[in-house]
Amino acid sequence: MKKFTRVAAGLLAVALAATMAAGCSKQGSGSKDSDKFYIGGIGPTTGGAAVYGNAVKNAAQIAVDEINEAGGINGYKIEYKFEDDEHNAEKSVNAYNSLKDWGMQILMGTVTTDPCKAVVAESGNDNMFQLTPSASSTDVIKGKNVFQVCFTDPNQGTASAKYIGEHKLASKVAVIYDSSDVYSSGIYENFAAEAKNQGFEIATAQTFTSDAKSEFSVQVKACVDSGADLIFLPIYYQEASLIIKEANDEGAKVTFFGCDGLDGLLSVDGFDKKLAEGVMLLTPFSADSTEERTAAFVKNYKEKYNDTPNQFAADAYDAIYIIKAAIEKADVKPSQSVSEIGDALEKAITELTYEGITGKGMTWSESGEVNKDPMAVVIKNGVYVSAE
Amino acid sequence: MKSKKINIKKSTLTTLITIAGIIVAYIIMNTLSNGGFLSYKMQGLLVPICAYAILAVSLNLVVGLLGELSLGHAGFLYVGAYTGAIFTNITADMISNDLVRFILGMVVGGVFAAIFGLIIGSAVLKLQGDYLAIVTLAFGEIIRSVLGNVLYISKDSSGLHFDVNDGSTLNPQDMIAKGAQGITVQRLSTFLIGIILLILTVLIVMNLSDSRAGRAIKAVRDNKIATEAVGISVSKYRLMAFTISAALAGVAGVYYAHNFATLTGTKFDFNFSINILVMVVLGGMGNIPGSIIAAIILTILPEEIRFLGNYRMVIYAVVLIVMMIFSWNPKCIEFRKVVSAKIKSVFKKKNKEVQ
Amino acid sequence: MSFISNIIDGINLGSIYAIIALGYTMVYGIAKMLNFAHGDVIMIGGYVLYEIIQGLGYHPLLAIFLSMLVCTVLGVVIERVAYKPLRGATSLAVLITAIGVSYLLQNVAQLIFTSNPKNFDSGIDFGTISLAGGDLKIKGSTILTIVVSAAIVVGLLIFIKKSKTGRAMLAVSEDKDAARLMGVDVNKTIAITFAIGSALAAIASFFMLTAMPNLTPTTGSMPGIKAFVAAVFGGIGSIPGAFVGGILLGIIESLSKKYISTTLANAIVFLVLIIVLIFKPTGLFGKKIKEKV
């Protein structure tokens, strides 16, 4: 046994030396082309949150391909690489460092909020321009180098409460939210705070966690028992589809109201779309839109990835084009340093007005927050219709 | 064979070699890093590697020396990380020296984790094997659910306030710990601090394993009843190993947490504990240097195979299975013995020829 | 009435845990290993069901049969390739290997079926029974789940007591070497145990997805861990123990969701487990560990 330990130790030492050596290449020494922009992306492409990361990865790829085919940005092509972070802050920082070794100059990411917070601390040190498609907490835009494509959580929570209050949709509202999720609990807190000003009562707030998001009979029953006439769902579409089905099985007569996370509801595999009739959501993007660019993007995405793009995909598609617009405005060159590009783009994006598939006339404040109008839609005959 | 002449105990020698190895590794990595020869990725991995190495060594105390399976190491780590991060947050305006605050934070984290280690240790005194494993697993999940979901803490001029529902009773401006949204943490961890912690951990664990207490712990592992029969208090030593292991994990947690700007509970799940356990098993149960080396490899490996894209985790799983079979299959062990014996005999011949 | 309906929900959930826990407990009893990949076999079974029922449009019964077939083959292959080479090695090594297999299955499933969640719908309308003047509604699927899981337990107990293979399983679990001397083919017996456990996983998969229709590559992990807890709860290695443990766990979970906190339901389940183990260190039906000097 002792011999074995020694042999094993020897083997381990060899493996150690090999891995160490692998890590010893010089910083940022990847074969960099000085006439290309290196744009990196980070998000979960494996693990429980993989569906969001893959949507962003794929949609950004479509945008990059389109831009490169059309001749690039000011004649410079884009080099694009996406790294997995498994929805884990530690892995996200590792992904960020890997991309830096690859030569990343601009970061489109990260997809989820918590890892984004960790990466923002790193990218702030490098003053690297960072545009997150979907990390919606206000914490992520604390650095001056970070901007968002999506709404912030407070914005969505408050806007939802205002909409429900102003349109007198309900007097008693029940909420089901994911208490283990940053996005969901963030929206809920702001929704609850604003509800007090809007003259409706939160009859019950039910929670679930990421460990138990397949079965909602208890929560739905509690909502029904509370006598609420509207259930607010600041959650993602997959769980929402199960809640709506459960409520239907219970025979509940309630309206459902959600935020941008609910977009994608109509394309859940195996979900009976008829149940979604009458569901209202505040979302800037609709995959069923007939608007030309959106329709082209959706068609492209379906052809390439055999799937309907969701909110995350649309945000990522816009993100790449926003980066393009900012580069054109600032007229930066790939030969400039990361920090120089960062300074220029941070200034340019605040002067920009961008027409995207997730909003018209998008502008950015210096804080990094996007200004665009949430659109309230209601699902009728299997498509989104403006609720106004 | 010098060791025999100077008459240093073999275990002391191993300790010295291990620590010398750590210091040499530190000097090499630091030189490379300062000279700009280290990739950003490796630089970023230095702190996590130290944290994982400490975790693996501390878990080895329970798994290797005590011979008990613990599946809840992430729980102790999280307790330490959480309390430590709360401490450095609330004392931010009281203690201006970052290093002092960080060290005190680690002490706080270590103490809290030790308290939980003591509680769990006493709860599982009567349990054995897989039953003990399941209790540690359950403990880890409970900690994660409570700290990482429903606990809200805020601080204002009148002191600390707690809420265990949705934080609506607290003022959002003063909130430190926000349930699932976690704690925003100041970045204080450095590679040097990690190396010092690792050396301290190695010293504590190796000394313990060689002390009277350590021999008793090993005796408990090898034969509990015989140990009890010669009058050694099994419970006392089991408890001691549990508590020290938890305290070290807590300190490592504080160190780990202060390397990232955010601390949430989602990642300290069952899988996290398993990863640490894999390091211990791969490095050899009871083998401290082995644990450190395994921690380094298993932290770097998934990063080095990033080019595989989504196949990465598949490959990682296959490598894990193959490594386990290679190191534990009776036939593989036999095969290795034969090979190493052959190598030995070749060396022996050479030696004879030289003489 | 809502209390009673809550209890029934709990029994439904518990029956599902029980079927999964049977797989854990049988394998543990015979191979003395914790098969952490069991939850992921359930997930694979779920994808087979989904693809056949909703993808190809075949009858659910056929799908269940094929899913059982796939899971059985998968279980036996896993045992042959990953666990058999480690027979005789420390249980920790086997545990880590099982976890490796679990990672492997999850990630292969993601590559094949993508990470997009699927909503399972068996297409069968089980109906609802109204009792007490409509105050108490019980889903047909709930009754079926409970009946099937009870039938499985009874069937297994009879199988082990009466059949030759069953008695061989008992012998192997008591003493592997003695069983070998008595002419029992140990490897074959262990393989059969894995086959049965995995076939049960496919059945569990159907009922689990009927009650919780969310299918992703990680669907199996939490129910897997819970069922493992249930098996320990009842005394690992004991078949009636796994059943009772599963049911109790389901009821505790359902009640704490309803009356205490949905967020903390898991924590409460685990807390109850710890308390039970402190007072009954080998679970409810576990054998006393004999200590030999």
Q: Describe it for me?
A:
The complex is a heterotrimer of chains A (388), B (355) and C (293). Chain A has 388 residues and is an alpha/beta fold. Chain A contains eleven helices and 15 strands. Chain A has two domains: 197 residues, Response regulator (Rossmann fold), CATH 3.40.50.2300; 130 residues, Response regulator (Rossmann fold, 3-Layer(aba) Sandwich), CATH 3.40.50.2300. Helices cover 44% and strands 19% of the residues of chain A. In chain A, the strands form three sheets. Chain A has a seven-stranded mixed beta sheet, with helices on both faces. A five-stranded parallel beta sheet of chain A has the order 2-1-3-4-5, sandwiched between helices. A three-stranded antiparallel beta sheet of chain A has the order 11-12-13, with helices on one face. The N terminus of chain A is likely disordered. In chain B, 72% of the residues lie in helices and 5% in strands. In chain B, the strands form two sheets. Chain B has a three-stranded antiparallel beta sheet. In chain B, helix 3 packs antiparallel against helix 10. Helix content of chain C is 72%, strand content 4%. Chain C contains eleven helices and four strands, in the order ααααβββααααβααα. In chain C, helix 2 packs parallel to helix 4 and helix 5 crosses helix 6. The mean pLDDT of chain C is 88. Chains A and B meet through helix 1, helix 3, helix 4 and helix 6 of A and helix 3, helix 6, helix 12, helix 13 and helix 14 of B.
List keywords for this structure.
heterotrimer; A: 388 residues; alpha/beta; Rossmann fold; 7-stranded mixed β-sheet; elongated; C: 293 residues; mainly alpha; two-stranded antiparallel sheet; globular
Main β sheet profile of chain B? 3 strands, antiparallel
Helix-strand pattern of chain A = HEHEHEHEEHEHEHEHEEHHHEEEEE
Q: What is the CATH architecture descriptor of chain B?
A: Orthogonal Bundle
N-end to C-end Cα span of chain A: 77 Å
Weakly predicted, low-confidence segments of chain A: 1-5, 24-30
The tally of domains of chain B stands at 1
At the fourth level of CATH, the homologous superfamily of the largest domain in chain A is Response regulator
Main CATH class of chain B = Mainly Alpha
How many beta strands in the DSSP annotation of chain B?
5
* CATH overall fold name of the largest domain in chain A: Rossmann fold
